[in-house]
Amino acid sequence: MPNLIKIKMDGFLADIEDKGFNQAIRWRYGKTCRLFAQWACEQHFKDVSEESLRRYALKVVGYWEAARNLPLQKRLTLMVLRRWSNFLMGMPYEYRIPAKDYRFSTAIGNWIGPYLDWCIQSLLRRPETINGKKRILFRLDIFLSSEGLEVANINIGNVDKHFMSLPLGQRESHKSTIREFLHYLYSNDLLPVNLSGQILKEPRRRRPERLPSVYSTEEVKQLLKSVDQSTSKGKRDYLVLLLCAQYGLRASDIVRLKLDNFNWEKNIIRVRQYKTDVDIELPLLASVGNAVINYLKHGHPSPNTGILVVSHMRTTVGQPLDRATIHSIVTAAFRNSNITGWQEKRHGPHSMRHSLASNLIKQEVSLMTISAALGHKSAESTKVYIKIDIDGLRKCGLAIPTMSNLWISGPELEAAQR
Predict the structure, then answer these.
(1) pLDDT tens digits for range 9-45
(2) pTM over 0.90
(3) Residues 235 and 272 in one domain
(4) Beta carbons within 8 Å of 159's beta carbon, 6+ residues apart
(5) Is residue 57 one of the residues assigned to a domain?
(6) Alpha carbons 335 and 329: distance in angstroms, whole number
(7) Domain for residue 307, yes or no?
């Protein structure tokens, strides 16, 4: 085994031990590292790097990024290799393996960095929007690579063929991003022809209307009771559920909450919503305030950081959570509760937001008040919840007028009136 590989392997395994991993997990990490070192010797590698770890992962796992339905053993091997790469680069260990590893095969890979930087600096696009654009252009890159084409040589026929291969629901967003990307390339003299003007807008299609999933007040209470608050993680999860259920906060706002958002003297919470960039001011409820204090005193691993809800995993302890973890917390609470039929409905943090609005409407709270509480820019966004207030809609029903028609009489008239 080359000396450099052994030194870096020993350093990685020592770091795993320092982080408190148990003996069984350390044994698994050590075995994976030793198998990599054996392969590296056969390939005449003298050092370990992200590229060599990637090549080994592609050989033994088949992926460097996570794939759906990947067997457990391969998933664990991939996790070890990626965390070793994190260690070599001085980065925190990954909590989850990314769903995709974007490796572009065409010249899009050379241009996407400047394009996305332009979107951030000039168009002020949010991180979620940037990630969406990257995914869309990655799909275009895969198409061009499979067709043996380069961006500089494509025509509108090639682009239309790519759009025709997409599901109808995705074409509008893909056309918008690709049109913008092609215009950017032409404006920066990277393409000789401006194809952006030749991409026609996608016709608007009426989508089937879906009612939001909601839960009754009793079901929400049952959900909160299902959390075990005897552990540090349980205190955090209970606080997350309270923020979802009693304020209707979005997951993107919960992960960004800091202690500075709480004004304990005035008993208010100020939140700048990540989605709309609109400030909302909420009353600090006693239940939420007590849950915050309980978590900070008896559960928070690093309260001095100022971040309210953080990870309790060994590899990421004290770091901010992501939105997927908030969803997992709410889903786990549903799984532990006795609420019937939750699997057939949406059961993430946004369902708590819908439930709050629905229950307030049932209590005959005005739409303007609900709109202000949820932080909607317009009350029009709140009107969707009227559709699920069946009891309230019944009060608006009108009696069926008596039919009077010369052409209908006797039994036919009585049947029509029924």
Answers:
(1) 999 999 998 888 888 899 999 999 999 999 999 988 8
(2) no
(3) yes
(4) 178, 195, 198, 199
(5) yes
(6) 10
(7) yes
